Amino acid sequence: MSVLSKSVYVFSAIDAFVTAFVAYISFAIIAPTPKSLLAIIFIMTAVMLIMLNAKGFYQPRIYGFKDIYKLFEGIVIACFLSGVFMIPILHGYAAVLLLYDIGLIFIAILLSRTVYALYKRFVKPVKNILIVGAGQDGKFIAEEIQSRPELGMKVVGFLDDNMNTIEEEDSTIPILGLTYDSEAVIKDNNVDIVIIAVKSRMDSNILTDLAKGIPLGVKVWRMPTFYAHIAKKLFISKMSVNWLFYDYVKPKHIMYSHIKRILDKLAALSILILTLPITLIAMLGIKISDFGPVFYTQTRIGKFGKPFKMVKFRTMYQDKVDESFDDDLVEVGHDDKRVMTFCKWIRKFHVDDIPQMLNILKGEMSLIGPRPVREDVYDENRDNISYWECRNWVRPGWTGWQQVNVNDPIPEERLRYDLYYVKHRTLIWDIVIFFQYLAKLLSGKCR
């Protein structure tokens, strides 16, 4: 199953091509060397993709007129940041040419988005969905589909053999018949997708009815699989979580783990080097704020429940916070008196998390993975939430899939995102998550 929609790949490729092409025709003549030109193209393309991602242009969505301004704003900011990086290469020439580039890139990307919006509205057909099972799970997935109009899907109705369910039906979506009616219902409603949302095991008669009634070409999904496909998180139940074990022990994940470990170390070293000036400023500011320790350590739970000491920059006055405080779980307001004045910007842009690169180098954490929690939180959630310990089958992460989607989830919601990551993790997706987090970080949207 793809963890990203096809439109994400298409738009990313179009935007990358447009930006790279415009950068090439703008700077080919004045770039000192071919290597400098390649560096300019790479900088502009990377910054553009990160900024447009931060503006939400790589998520399934319905475009409106307000997005025109957001697109222009994102392109302006991306070109400005690119110019800052290119000053050592081009000196003062970059500013004039980048103004020219803003217009070209904006027109080209706006045109591509307009064509897509028109195609989706007037050409691309709506997919009709039939749900087998009008119980709790069936109604849940129907509501999820209805709440996501950007998917271009319509629930035409249910099939259900439980007469009690039919009699007590209170949904706005009709029950169209029994399972042996599936052939006629699918034909009459031009059904494209059938979702099986039956909790109990179906007997052979029901399965035979469906086998006869579902023609070739109609896609069939199990409800938890389809939910994960559209929501990008798991539906926590025995039906879905049991998949984790079989995916976890696949040989491809063994190779993935070895390669990821190497890349984690390289990334951690690179981040420590690139952020060294910011780190030195942060350390100095923290030290002179109250002359206390620069670092703050706390015991967290790692892979397979093994505890470790996670290190962060201390951002609160040392006499106003205790060991049980967990700012990964507790929201801290901008005006919280426990936070040192100098450290407010450190918290806003998560500079206090940079020392966790040391945890990554030691093998206690990974760059991408579920965020580690305190031991008491782990024990409490393990006792009260099914499959909580499954999120610790992989190393905890500096950031992760949950962080790029929601800031303050309840534990059950956090688990849905974390287990989705455990199931679908790949090196390419890790890279995508990292840049999505970086975009969210630079936009100031991280808590």
Count of DSSP-assigned helices: 18
Beginning-to-end CA distance, first to last residue:
30 Å
Whole-angstrom Rg = 25 Å
Describe the largest sheet.
5 strands, parallel
**Low-pLDDT windows of residues:** none
Overall average pLDDT: 85
Q: Please report the total strand number as a whole number.
A: 9
Structural description of this entry:
The chain has 18 helices and 9 strands. α3 packs antiparallel against α4 and α5 (136-146) packs parallel to α9 (223-231). The protein has helices at residues 6-27, 34-54, 66-90, 93-123, 136-146, 163-167, 182-188, 204-213, 223-231, 238-248, 251-274, 276-290, 344-348, 356-361, 375-384, 401-405, 411-424, 427-442, and strands at residues 127-132, 153-159, 175-177, 193-196, 219-222, 295-301, 307-313, 366-368, 397-399. Strands 3-2-1-4-5 form a 5-stranded parallel beta sheet, with helices on both faces. With 447 residues, the protein is an alpha/beta fold.
Write the layout of secondary structure elements.
Elements: H1 6-27, H2 34-54, H3 66-90, H4 93-123, E1 127-132, H5 136-146, E2 153-159, H6 163-167, E3 175-177, H7 182-188, E4 193-196, H8 204-213, E5 219-222, H9 223-231, H10 238-248, H11 251-274, H12 276-290, E6 295-301, E7 307-313, H13 344-348, H14 356-361, E8 366-368, H15 375-384, E9 397-399, H16 401-405, H17 411-424, H18 427-442
Parallel strand pairs: 1-2, 1-4, 2-3, 4-5, 8-9
Antiparallel strand pairs: 6-7
